[in-house]
Amino acid sequence: MAVAVSETSAPEWAGPLQGVRVLDFTRVLAGPSAALALADLGAEVIKVEPPGSGDETRDFPPLRNGESHYFLSVNRGKKSIVIDLKSEAGVALARDLAAHSDILVENYRPGVMDRLGLGYEALSAINPRLIYCAISGYGMTGPLRDRPSFDIVLQAMSGALSVNGEQGQRPTKLGIPMGDLVGGINGPIGILAALYERSVTERGRLIDVALMDGLIGLLAYLPQLAFFTGEDPVPQGAQHPNLVPYGIFPASDGSVVVGCLTNSFWSRICRALGLDDWIDDPRFASIEKRRDARAIVNARICECTEQRTVDELVALFTDYQVPHAPILGVRDALAQPQAVARELVVETEHRTLGPIPIVNRPIKFPENRQPVPTAPPVLGQHTDEILRGILGLDTGRIAGLRGDGIVA
After folding, report:
1. What is the pLDDT of residues 327-337, one digit of tens each?
2. Could you say which of 312, 328, 344 is where a domain stops?
3. CATH code: domain of residue 300
């Protein structure tokens, strides 16, 4: 995999959250993706892991030299400390770290952190400025708050799964785990809003992020469509319920995606495919009429596209400024010139794997350049550094904690 080499001379800086410390009690995907966003923005993120195997995803195959692809994907730019939270001494260490932190993120089931003595009420008493973000499947309230959840369960409960797949067939799970990843979107939004509020009030607050709430929020226009029609939206495959042509169209050697959102794009599509007589055809003169003539429009577009190669169609649609794309696999998507220009893949040094490619930060700050993210940490890689640098513990005390199995 090729990696980007930047030619910019902009000075490096950690990011807009430089100087902000995040205590990360998350695991698997929803919580780690939220903490990852904060690390990408320059915060110091300290991932607290249990002794033994650490975050469960460290064991998710496939592995390379004992390191999991899954863990590597959402833990760049973080530090790892191992603390036994089942011990009083371990909880005491965690409380001390919370007293020295700005933000805490956790994604246990509601009540777990309270039982450990690490809930919001307990920690805000010792650090009133602490912003505490709790991410869970169904949130802190409601009849489902204690029910376990995973991505596919949330897709089903939110309605997202019901509208994904081909028309007339059973729904299909989203290929991207949005049921979990929505925690990485809404969590940071709430945290950053609370961070701004704290600059005025000098106090933190508790944030309750429910993944089901977030996924329902991502249904976009579909709830309003249901309110208007009184009917559930149904799967449309790659097509759009109201826009035509919109979807995947065959080429002689593959497929392309075309999206027609307005009448101006309709005329461009017609010109690109030699259908000039259709531009002013009253049968297709509006979005509604094209929707009602979906079968006729799509059949004719397919007849035109399947006579050309993907490259020919890309060239045509580019010339006529039609929204389009070839369908790329993940490797091709990461290697395309646009991804290289945007430095979406960079190389970083992993403690056991050596140089590895990773996906880079998705948000850019052109006036200042952030350094390449540090590699996802091996288990407990920064334990001594954190205990010494933040809590001021000496070598003897750290050795004693390690000998008692409190840290590792």
Report:
1. 999 999 999 99
2. 328
3. 3.30.1540.10
Q: How far apart are CA 284 and CA 278, in angstroms?
A: 7
Report yes or no: 398 and 39 within 8 Å, Cβ to Cβ: no
Same domain, 196 and 256: no
d(CA 43, CA 98): 15
What residue type is assigned to position 82 of the chain? Answer: V
Give kind and range of the element (H or E) at residue 334.
helix 330-335
* Structural domain containing residue 263: 246-328
322, burial (CB in 10 Å: exposed 0-12, middle 13-18, buried 19+): buried
Q: Considering the candidates 24, 102, 180, 404, report the single residue annotated as catalytic.
A: 180
Per-residue pLDDT tens over the stretch 108-159: 999 999 999 999 999 999 999 999 999 999 999 999 999 988 899 999 999 9
What is the secondary structure of 346-389 as a DSSP string?
Answer: EEEEETTTEEEEEE--S---TTSBPPPPPPPPPTTTTHHHHHHH
SS3 content of the chain, % helix, strand, coil (to 5): 40, 15, 45
Residues 267 and 384 reside in one and the same domain = no
Residues 6+ apart with CB under 8 A from 154: 137, 160, 179, 180, 211, 212, 215
Exposed/middle/buried for residue 225 (C-beta within 10 Å: 0-12, 13-18, 19+):
middle
Give the DSSP per-residue string, 157-210. Answer: HHSTGGG-S-TTS-----SS-HHHHTHHHHHHHHHHHHHHHHHHHS---EEEEE
Is residue 180 flagged as an active site residue?
yes
In the block, tokens 């007849």 appear at 303
43-75 b/e (C-beta count within 10 Å ≥ 16 → b): bbbbbbbbbeebbebbeeeeeeeebbebbbbbb
Instruction: Tell me which residue has tokens 């932190």.
Output: 101
Distance CA(238)–CA(324), nearest Å, equals: 13
Determine the longest span between alpha carbons in the chain, in angstroms: 84
Q: Which run of H or of E encompasses 113? A: helix 112-116
